[in-house]
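Notes, Module 5: Reading structure tokens.

Key idea: the token line is not a picture. It is a compressed description, and you learn to read it the same way you learned to read a sequence, by spotting repeated patterns. We will look at two proteins. The first is printed below with its tokens.
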Amino acid sequence: MLCDGASSDEIADYLRQHRPIGVDAELVDLSHSHRVVEICGPFAWEVMDRLHDGAYVGLPFLSHAAIEGCDGIVIRASR
């Protein structure tokens, strides 16, 4: 889950308070071992095209793909 605005503690508290009865889930904060790099704006796909030779152009909305050559993923989260 990627969230913006609130702190990870605030988000975790909210999720714990609103967890449906009977749902057994564990929250794990990965911020110490994982990073997010956002490329935003009207030319974001042009940047990705140049970085990865067009491999991710046309990625469907709300989908993801592995990044070749590194341990990462591309997530298309905006239109």
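Here is the second protein, with the sequence above and the tokens below, as before.
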Amino acid sequence: MKREANMTFGAHLTEAMQRRAMHPVQLTAALLERGVSVTPTTVYNWAQGETEPRASTILEICRVLDLDPNNLMGWGDD
């Protein structure tokens, strides 16, 4: 799927979670299992574009969602 160039990180994250039928609480749980200390509110804020995670957290998000970081960041095609 071709992504819009103007999509935010939050929009990309939301789309990726929706494709996998994953709620922010589920992503939080998966990240906690990997040792990433986050709350559902934090994940929700990322999805809403309020804040963005650190690079190391982005890599863990990509592992959980089985994505290439370039796609999550909107730098490549899915």
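Summary for the second protein:
- The chain has a mean pLDDT of 89.
- DSSP finds five helices and no strands in the chain.
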